[in-house]
Amino acid sequence: MKKNDEIITDLFISKVCGRLAENLQVRRTLPEWGRVNIDRQLPFLCIYRRGKDKSPSLSDSLITGEASYLTAIENRKSHKQLSSLVKNIVRTLKENFGSFLVVEVWVTEHVQTENELPDYNGAFKIIAPKKTKITSTIESLEQSLKKIKIRRENATVEVIHASKITPPGLPPLITYAEAEQLGCHVIGVEISSIYLDRKTGEVFPLIFRKLKKSFTRALQNSFFEFTRSHTPFRPPHFHSLGRRSMVKAVWETDTQLAEICNGFDFLLQVTPINIDSAWSFFQRSHYEKKPHFIYRPLSLDPATAKRQLFQIQIERIEDSTLAQLLREHQLELDRKFTMLIDRNTERFIYGSLQLYGAVDDSLMKLATDLIEQLPPRSRDESSGTYVDALSFAERANEELAYYRTIIPESKCKVVVREDITGLMVSNGNLLIGAKLKIPATRIEALIAHEVGTHVLTYLNGKSQPLQQLYIGFPGYDELQEGLAVLSEYLVGGLTKPRMRLLAARVVAARQMIDGASFVDVFRHLNYDYGFERRTAFNIVMRTFRGGGLTKDAVYLRGLVQLLEYLKNGGALEPLFVGKISADHVPIINELQWRKVLHPTPLRPRFLSGPDTNKKLNDLKSGLTPMNLIQRSKI
Questions:
Q1: How many angstroms separate the CA atoms of 172 and 175, rounded?
Q2: Do 499 and 552 contact (CB within 8 A), yes or no?
Q3: Which tens digits make up the pLDDT trace of 104-121?
Q4: 414-417, strands of its sheet edge to edge
Q5: Dihedral sign for Cα atoms in the order 450, 454, 457, 462
Q6: Phi, psi at 208, each rounded to 5°
Q7: Would you call 53 exposed, middle or buried from its count of C-beta atoms within 10 A (0-12, 13-18, 19+)?
Q8: How far is CA 427 from the centre of its chain?
Q9: Is 521 in contact with 503 (CB distance < 8 Å)?
């Protein structure tokens, strides 16, 4: 026995149950191997026992994503104490809920015969008493398990009634008679080990991850049904019965990923620093020769960063939802480091396609339709009044000051810089190109875009315990830019020239992907679509930077995605919780139900505009990007 292992004594049981009676978390190790982990007072306990003669395996972690679980080594010497621990936990928690559910899980290994084809479909058996009052809970579990898909095939589920509910070869922790006396219910779930090669015993880790996540969801659904049907409590959502407290491995991994992300700014590293001189060269060549772009020296060694990245042990995380999220971010960072290695080479574009995607035919058609239907010249931005970088910075600082009244600890600032053109938000700071000139009619739209969306989601993310929310969930750019463009519409500043510009970025990206040269794309935008030469140059420069960056296509694609989301009844305000993608909205909802995330402190100021509610209601009816175009308002 290891020094840190607990011994299940009467005092140990008393301490565990004492904490549970006070609604405190219990997380204690058990003899040889195992743990009792109960997040708070809950009307269920999930159990997994490993026989003393069995070797450690992935199966040992099948239930560790639950908010209330117990894992243990089963042997004759400790069985009585283990059984006593379980019964006392049941007795303590049943006092609060009036009823209690124990679910014991075990795995069966199938030996494949010589001529038998491998079967990787999920297979479950639910073992329940012949007489039971929780038929609806068993049916809920059965239906949830049937929805589990492994390799695109639904799982098979069989319900078996038996008087003895326990893993093969192991004595029951609670007999039927004891369960009756305690006023609790016991069911078993037998799982086929489809994540093991049945000839060699080799583990298929990706299948196991998917099975564990889906199985956790199925259990939570059945716990939710049991709680609502057999206790006086009415949890609002099945996610609200999930884990709230996180193990140390979650916060360590989150911090390690954040440290790596904060060590570099990807967009700054792939954006040229000689844009003005490159434009002068392009002019002198009569727009016939692609200019040479110069980039900042890399602020890190990508190969060393990769090694550091994959030393992060995400597999230690018990929570399937957070493990998946952090693993996705790890892989996204790996792609970015590869792109930095490939910067200014032909290989760069392939990483960009993985990171930001391509331009499909439907998006390309929308972009060309917008360019052709909207005039190349418009009075929307032709008032003749422009503001310089310093004046715009002053207005941006006013907006930041407003948000600072709500989050005084905010360190976000506005910086005017000579080495960039246009606007960029980096680590929560608004960077403004020193030579920037902005039409007066576009000031509020850009404030809403840059400060009211990009800086605000950074600050909201910064206020959460999970640092990934301010750094950015994997693939967050699409929804983030869609929100930013929609904010321009909500303040009355989404003009015809602006929409043409976003559409032109899509066209430029598609042409580059299809093999067009820098000069070819410039000519197409300038000659065929009527964009001014400097505007066309900036679009093409952004598209070809680094070796080919498809990021600029996400503005229009993100807007289309967001309009569809709102049309289908999606709520807008929850999207400002941090830098997330549309795919992660369900994860955010889950973490909010579980109270892992705090309430969002900042609400975009532009959502309080006099016409905002009407515009939001119009969006629910289903609007297209063309519908959003309106004249700018001063």
A1: 6
A2: no
A3: 999 987 655 555 445 556
A4: 414-417, 429-433, 423-426
A5: negative
A6: -65, -45
A7: exposed
A8: 19
A9: no
Residue 254 reports pLDDT greater than 90: yes
Structure tokens that stand for 109 in this block: 């290994």
The overall pTM is greater than 0.90:
no
Pick from 468, 467, 451: nearest CA to 403? 451
Asked if 378 contacts 572 with a C-beta cutoff of 8 angstroms, the reply is: no
CA distance 127 to 144: 15
Q: What is the pLDDT of residues 404-426, one digit of tens each?
A: 999 999 999 999 998 888 899 99
The rounded distance, in Å, linking the Cα atoms of 218 and 142 is 9
DSSP secondary structure of 205-267: HHHHHHHHHHHHHHHHHHHHHHHHHHSS---SSGGGGS--S--HHHHHHHHHHHHHHHT--HH
- Number of other CB atoms surrounding residue 483 within 10 Å: 25
Q: Which of 600, 593, 546, 595 is nearest to 573 (CA)?
A: 600
Domain spans, the chain = 10-241, 350-408+436-628
Q: Which of 513, 569, 215 is nearest to 353 (CA)?
A: 513
Domain 10-241 has CATH 3.40.630: yes
Return contacts of 308-316, CB within 8 angstroms, 24+ apart: 308/260, 309/260, 309/333, 309/334, 309/337, 310/334, 312/253, 312/256, 312/257, 313/249, 313/253, 314/253, 316/247, 316/249, 316/253
Residue 578 has pLDDT above 70, yes or no: yes
Q: And the tokens for 310? A: 């994959």
Amino acid at 467: Q
Q: Per residue in 436-464, pLDDT tens?
A: 999 988 999 999 999 999 999 999 999 99
